[in-house]
Design goal:
Largest sheet: 2 strands, antiparallel
Helix content: over 70%
Number of strands: 2
Order of helices and strands: HHHHHHHEEHH
Strand content: under 5%
Radius of gyration: 20 Å
Length: 289
Amino acid sequence: MGATMVVQPLDLVKTRMQVAGAGGGKSEYKSSLDCLMSVVRNEGPFKLYAGIGAALLRQATYTTGRLGVYTYLNDSYKEKFSSEPTLITRMGMGMAAGACGALVGTPAEVALIRMTADGRLPLAERRNYTSVVNALSRITTEEGFAALFRGCIPTMGRAMVVNMAQLSSYSTAKAYIVQKFEMQDGIKLHFCASMISGFITTVASMPVDIAKTRIQNMKTIDGKPEYKGAIDVLLKVGRHEGVFALWKGFTPYFCRLGPHTVLTFIILEQLNQLYSRHVLGVESKGSGL
């Protein structure tokens, strides 16, 4: 949640870039910077934090769940086998953690996507949610409870890819840096490992992230949804907008995911050290990731 407070404007730009051009139309933004300036110019600087309530709720559910499950699995493996997990094992644990966290966090994710994308719609088509509670309540009332879990499968798919890449690459990069460069455990090590993790995660997860975003933001026209599923999104984007459109918004996505990954892991490591020292009364080297 602390990391999200810093990077929310970049997340909004990323979402706007991804939904721009939906339906085969031409994107109204020339670049990520143009999108950022357009929001500030047309909607005001505070709109960069549109959907912050939903973003924080998403972190409180999805990220809490995925990091908790991964840490539990990691610690259980070390305790049972008395050794460090292999890269393949870490990837599997990351996928399981991501799926669990995404299932819990999907309602907040749906609200977040809609709230951040709302400003680009014509006035007559805007949903105008006043808060995350209002968004969740109206989605349930107007579209049914199941709508809160719209895009659940691609959301879980994205989360599995993200966490397979992010958590396993962080753990592996951290161990490699310590072994290769003999760097001491601390903020410098956490920063280097999380920047490597952020880049790998961005490249791996963007296509599934675009599929998830388009599905959660789509409208039903004449009783028919715009997309049949995640594969349909990927095929239509590739056909109408080009293959590289699957990485549309790469700059704000990496600028968001890089710092978010760095801040999340640094804050997590520090909080775990403080908890171990002041609550458990033992010295800890960090989160155990």
